[in-house]
Design goal:
Number of domains: 2
Shape: elongated
Order of helices and strands: HHHHHH
Helix content: over 70%
Radius of gyration: 24 Å
Number of helices: 6
Structural class: mainly alpha
Number of strands: 0
Distance between the termini: 40 Å
Strand content: under 5%
Length: 142
């Protein structure tokens, strides 16, 4: 009889600990994901340097790209500060800015360079932490 009680207590404690671990893991996944950080001037120069090598940019292209990127990220920073509370409006304006940015960049680059630029930007894009934190277990059908 005492063995059954001990076994029951051990099972209850194990279940309790397992439940707490799962709750903690779920709470960690629910951290809000904000917009990606705006690159500093130093980071922009590093991107331009990398792009210069990867895309074989001319000096004129390098200069125009630097100007376009610097201006673009200054505007993005202003927009982020403007919409600290309203992320829906910020997202729409950021999408418009990105479209304008892409058009400006493509006007400076050749078709081949544009393709390489898109690949470069995909490599440098910040990762969505929520995707990386999802549990790897099986999905259950509801």
């Amino acid at each position: 009889m005492k063995t059954k009680i001990k076994l029951t207590v051990i099972m209850l404690l194990a279940s309790f600990m397992f439940t707490l671990t799962n709750i903690n893991a779920q709470q960690m996944q629910q951290k809000p994901l904000g917009p990606p950080p705006i690159p500093s001037e130093k980071q922009i120069q590093k991107m331009i340097s990398d792009l210069e090598t990867k895309l074989s940019l001319s000096e004129e292209q390098k200069q125009k790209m630097t100007e376009i990127m610097s201006d673009h990220f200054k505007i993005m920073k202003t927009v982020q500060e403007k919409y600290k509370k309203s992320h829906e409006a910020e997202r729409k304006e950021m999408e418009t800015l990105k479209g304008n940015f892409d058009s400006e960049i493509k006007s400076v680059l050749s078709i081949e360079q544009s393709v390489l630029f898109e690949e470069f930007m995909k490599e440098k894009r910040p990762r969505d932490n929520r995707k990386m934190q999802k549990p790897q277990g099986k999905k259950r059908d509801k």
